[in-house]
Amino acid sequence: MIDNRNEIRAVIFDLDGVIVSTDECHYQGWKQLADEEGIDFNREINERLRGVSRMESLEIVLERAQKQYLEDQKMEMATRKNEYYKGLIQKLTPKDILPGVPEFLAGLKGRGIKIAIGSSSKNSPLILERIGLDKTFDATADGNDISRSKPDPEVFLVAAMRVGIPPENCLVVEDAEAGIEAALAAGMQVLGVGFASKSERATYRAADLAAVRVGDILNAR
Ligand code: BG6
Ligand code: MG
Prior knowledge:
The protein is of the alpha/beta class. Helices cover 40% and strands 10% of the residues. The chain is globular, with a radius of gyration of 18 Å.
């Protein structure tokens, strides 16, 4: 049987839910805003915000609002949620890095594979600094660099360009369906972890990075 999977020369990591879990901080930030506005919000709705940009997340939160909001009111609400969120992520430390991440990154670096971040979050630089990984990656692309959020492939294509590796030689690690879709649309392979560990569309699946050996991914051709 001919296996036409391409050689992996770069791995692009989503940040939230792959490198570090910020779920609870996002939930608390949106919950505080929703409570203040009298909007029903719960953890089930919060799941739909995974991988989705801040403004698109707000639109999902507002599906249960009892009134219409003007654009400048929406901007104010997104900013308010982000202030709550930033207060919470200030408390992140290197201890919040998810299981297996340091070993996986070291394994890739040891084999000369480029590593990058491809995240929808505009807070990526702050989060990477808080967990001590701000100088670890060869390149980062995040919500500040793009005009179209996942499931659009833009953020992964920017990350690939910044590490100088063609999309077909990149593997994305994602925890969100929107991110899996974005990676596939970019022409990349994708490893689904965490909430995407059962995704049928992912090229590979694992509970977390502690369950993946670098060699297995690189030698899978
Ligand atoms: C993604 C998260 O990484 O970033 C989403 O999974 C979040 O839940 C998005 O909405 C945007 O984040 P930020 O930090 O720019 O508000
Ligand atoms: Mg994610």
